């Protein structure tokens, strides 16, 4: 069978992800029950916010996210209804969190395609966030290059409360873009970056993809070279992960198209590390490289660490003690909020040890290092006292013996030798836990229970 970067692709790490991260979600008995759980577990001062905008004007071959195909002009009524529902959800969280002392520090809109919403819609969302959740942070959105070719449209977005943009470049090579099913050109990417800078966008990230079917190592290096020459603040590099529900899955499974081999995967990972580091981009995550010290594109880690409030169809939230998943069906999401209900389709409680392990996994294997003093301040116990005797703690000991991690009195850090292993751990987890959860919630709008894996 041809190589596919699916949930079984990472050997022992895929096996561990399936065994170590078994989760069970149940539908809340009522909106009151879910509201109470959110309120009681949202105890930290700084909170992130994620909004899911599920609309797309096309479907990319390997997209693993919840999306809803639309015609931008014909379906404006549906978009308006969706935004109205999102505004209602913001008001609901205002009531749930009334009296709690917290600050919304990061706001991230993903999709789907958030850039399909024009400035008028984003202005309404921004105003509601300020009024009902006291949010002062600028909104960060994911955007497709073809949406930002018009300079006036970009100025309108930036005037509406958008402060950061993650541009889905994916590749500058026409052949690779075609393999991904993308509709934009490299010229669209260059024009979009220029328009964002001219409009005063404070921070720009661009996404690149590797392990694309038919892509060579040299083509990947050429993409990295071109990206490093652009006026952007961060470059994030993602492998082409394959889920059973993406359009391209059967093409790969049947062998009609093929991904690069495991040796090339490793070479692509280290090519990004070496080339971008040499061009002035500092490694901040195993997949992220930033030109600006102390800044990275927002809230991605909060999905693991919390606290993060999730709004929108298919959004996931994690307060730190309560993890929940909104319904993945657009019309049901709209209906629930119209009827005064929270759109939460499933939720589960997470104990302090569970959260501590999630936090440690994220810090060590994604953010490249865990500060043990910060850990103690957050969880009230020394890292090794709380986590060291668990299976996860024993695994860390083995990784130190192999030279993949190093530890001193202050930190546990990922080594360059351990970078490839960290990628395998990370993507095995992503495919076997969040992608599996998303897959199950695509099957029915309100399942009574979902167990993963």
Structure description:
With 453 residues, this protein is an alpha/beta fold. Strand 13 and strand 14 form a beta hairpin. The strands form 5 sheets. It has a 9-stranded mixed sheet with strand order 10-11-9-8-7-6-5-2-12. It has a 3-stranded antiparallel sheet with strand order 13-14-15. A 3-stranded antiparallel sheet has the order 16-18-17. It is globular and about 55 Å long. It has a domain of 281 residues: pyruvate-formate lyase- activating enzyme. It has 18 helices and 19 strands. Helix 4 packs parallel to helix 5.
CATH superfamily of the domain at 23-303: tm_1862 like domain
Indicate the overall shape: globular
> In the CATH scheme, what's the topology name of the domain at 23-303?
pyruvate-formate lyase- activating enzyme
**Spatial strand order of the main sheet:** 10-11-9-8-7-6-5-2-12
Largest sheet: 9 strands, mixed
CATH class division of the domain at 23-303: Alpha Beta
Radius of gyration: 21 Å
Helix amount? 40-55%
Can you count the beta strands?
Answer: 19
**Beta-strand share of residues:** 15-25%
CATH architecture of the domain at 23-303: Alpha-Beta Horseshoe
Helical/strand content category: alpha/beta
Number of helices: 18
Low-confidence stretches: none
Could you tell me how far the N terminus lies from the C terminus, measured between alpha carbons in angstroms? 23 Å
């Amino acid at each position: 069978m041809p190589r596919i970067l699916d949930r079984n692709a990472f050997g022992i790490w895929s096996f561990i992800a399936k065994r170590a991260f078994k989760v069970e979600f149940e539908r809340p008995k009522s909106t009151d029950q879910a509201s109470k759980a959110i309120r009681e577990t949202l105890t930290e001062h700084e909170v992130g916010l994620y909004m899911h905008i599920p609309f797309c004007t096309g479907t990319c071959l390997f997209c693993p996210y919840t999306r809803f195909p639309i015609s931008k002009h014909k379906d404006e009524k549906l978009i308006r209804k969706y935004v109205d529902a999102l505004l209602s959800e913001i008001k609901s969280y205002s009531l749930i969190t009334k009296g709690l002392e917290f600050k919304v520090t990061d706001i991230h809109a993903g999709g789907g395609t958030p850039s399909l919403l024009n400035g008028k819609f984003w202005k309404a969302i921004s105003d509601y966030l300020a009024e009902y959740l006291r949010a002062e942070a600028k909104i960060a959105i994911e955007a497709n290059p073809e949406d930002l070719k018009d300079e006036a449209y970009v100025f309108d977005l930036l005037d509406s409360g958008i402060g950061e943009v993650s541009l889905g470049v994916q590749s500058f090579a026409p052949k690779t873009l075609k393999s991904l099913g993308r509709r934009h050109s490299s010229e669209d990417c260059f024009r979009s970056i220029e328009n964002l800078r001219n409009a005063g966008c404070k921070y720009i990230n661009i996404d690149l993809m590797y392990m694309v079917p038919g892509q060579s190592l040299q083509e990947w290096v050429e993409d990295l070279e071109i990206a490093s020459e652009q006026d952007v603040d961060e470059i994030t590099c993602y492998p082409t992960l394959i889920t059973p529900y993406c359009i391209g899955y059967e093409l790969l499974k049947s062998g009609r198209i093929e991904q690069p081999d495991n040796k090339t995967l490793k070479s692509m990972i280290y090519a990004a590390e070496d080339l971008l580091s040499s061009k002035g981009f500092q490694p901040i995550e195993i997949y992220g490289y930033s030109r600006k010290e102390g800044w990275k594109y927002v809230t991605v880690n909060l999905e693991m660490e919390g606290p993060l409030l999730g709004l929108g169809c298919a959004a996931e939230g994690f307060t730190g003690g309560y993890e929940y998943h909104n319904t993945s069906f657009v019309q049901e999401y709209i209906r629930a909020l119209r009827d005064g209900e929270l759109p939460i389709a499933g939720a589960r409680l997470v104990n302090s040890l569970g959260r501590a392990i999630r936090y440690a996994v994220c810090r060590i294997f994604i953010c490249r290092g865990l500060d043990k003093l910060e850990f103690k301040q957050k969880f009230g116990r020394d890292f090794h006292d709380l986590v060291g005797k668990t299976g996860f703690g024993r695994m860390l000991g083995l990784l130190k013996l192999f030279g993949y991690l190093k530890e001193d009195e202050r930190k546990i850090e990922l080594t360059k030798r351990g970078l490839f292993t960290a990628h395998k751990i990370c993507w095995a987890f992503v495919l076997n836990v969040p992608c599996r959860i998303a897959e199950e919630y695509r099957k029915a709008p309100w399942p009574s229970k979902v167990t993963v894996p």
